[in-house]
Amino acid sequence: MTRFIVFLIAALTLTTSAFATEAMWTETAVKLGDGDATLYGSYIAPGPWKSEFDAVLVLSGSGPTDRDGNQANMKNDSLKMVAHALAGAGIATLRVDKRGVGESSKAATREEDLRFDTYVDDAKAWLAFLKSQPGVKRLFIIGHSEGALIGSVVAQDEQVTGYVSLAGAGEPAADVLRRQIKASPNGDQVLALAEPTLAKLEKGELDPAPNPLLISLFRTSVQPYLISWFRYDPRIEIAKVPGRFMIVQGTTDFQVLLADADSLAVARPDAEKAIIEGMNHVLKVAPAERVANAATYTDPTLPLAPGLEEALRGFIEKP
After folding, report:
1. How high is the pLDDT of residue 3?
2. For 34, which of 2, 100, 156, 285 is 20 to 30 Å away at the CA?
3. Geometric angle at alpha carbon 194, from 190 and 195, rounded to 5°
4. Sign of the CA dihedral running 57, 60, 62, 66
5. Domain segments of the chain: what residues?
6. What's residue 20's pLDDT?
C-alpha cells in the first residue's frame, strides 16, 4: 500500500509538472512572405497567465546555421535552449531560419546576388512581425556570432529596448578571417596566399583570380557578399544602437575571443558585460583544448553553460 501511495504521488507530480510547463508557454511555427520567398521561424509566447511580456528576436550565426543554432552534422540546439530558458521566465522569443537555410532554404537567392544587407533587411522584417504580436511590451534582440553584427544594425531601430551581442566579433569580418586563417594549420603560409584577395575585397574590388588553393573561400560568386560584409565594423555599428547594450562572451570560445568582447566594450563603454566562465562558441561548457571543445558542437544533450541564462534574463528583465 505504501509503495502504491508513493507511486500515485509521483504520478500526480509528473502530471502537474507537465501541465504547468504546457501552460507556461506555447511554441508556434510562423512564416513571413509567400511562395518560394517565404521565411520560417518559431515563436514562443507565455501562456494566458501573462498578458504583457518582453519579446526577443534571436539571430543565428554565420553559414548554414538554422534557428536552433544547428548545421548539418552539427546539432547542439544552443539557440533553441536559449529560447526555452527565456520562455520559462515569461519572455517571448522569435528565432528564425535565415534565407537559404533550414525551412527557409527555398527562399535562397543566387549566391552571386546575396548581400549581407539581405540578412539585415530580413531581420528588420522579422522585428516588425514580432512587434505586431499580441501582448508584446518591449523589444530586444540577441545576435549570436555573425548574427551579432546583423543584430547591431537592426537594433538601431529606436523601438528596440535592448540588444545583446552573444559571442559577437569585435572587429570587421576581414580581420576576423585573417585571425582564423592564421590560427589554422600552416596559417602564416595560407594567410600570405589569402592576403591579396582580402585586400581587394576590403577596397570593394572583385578578385577575378584568387589563389586556386583558396577557391572554396574566395570563389567569384561569393565575393560580392564578402565585400558587403567587410564594409561593416561592429565597433561603429554598436555605437549607433540607442537602447541598452550587453556583451556576453565565453572564456573557452576559440572562434570569438575575450579580446573581441574587450574591443566592443571600448567602443561602447556604457555596455553591460558578462563573461561566462568555461563557455564556448555554442554556449556549452567546454575545455580550452580544441578537439574536446569542438566535440560539444555535436552534442545536443549538453545544457547551456551555467550563468548564461541568468545573465540574459537579468538584462531583459531590468525595468
Report:
1. 40
2. 156
3. 115
4. negative
5. 8-172+233-317, 173-231
6. 46
What residues does 279 pair with on adjacent strands?
285
Q: Residue 164 and residue 160: Cα distance in Å, rounded?
A: 11
CATH architecture under which domain 8-172+233-317 falls = 3-Layer(aba) Sandwich (3.40)
- Distance (Å, whole) CA 8 – CA 257: 51
pLDDT at 1: 40
Residues with Cβ within 8 Å of residue 226, at least 6 apart in sequence: 173, 174, 201, 218
Distances (CA, A) of 109 to 104, 105, 170: 11, 9, 28
What does pLDDT average to in each consecutive run of 10 residues of the chain (319 residues)?
A: 36 38 85 96 96 98 96 97 97 98 96 97 98 98 98 97 98 96 94 98 98 96 98 98 98 97 98 98 98 98 98 97
Query: According to the model, what pLDDT value does residue 23 have?
Result: 73
Contacts of 228 (CB under 8 A, 6+ apart): 115, 116, 117
> What Å distances lie between residue 197 and 42, 111, 215, 271, CA to CA?
39, 18, 11, 35
How many other β-carbons are positioned within 10 Å of the β-carbon of residue 271? Answer: 19
The string over 155-190, giving b where at least 16 C-beta atoms fall within 10 Å of a residue's C-beta and e elsewhere, is bbbeebbbbbbbbbbbbbbbebbbbebeeeeeeeeb
DSSP character string of 214-256: GHHHH-TTTHHHHHHHHT--HHHHHTT--SEEEEEEETT-SSS
78-87 helix and 308-317 helix, angle to the nearest 10 degrees: 50
Each residue's pLDDT tens digit, 181-222 = 999 899 999 999 999 999 999 999 999 999 999 999 999 999
pLDDT at position 22 is 52
Q: Are 255 and 145 in contact (CB under 8 A)?
A: yes
* DSSP, res 99: T
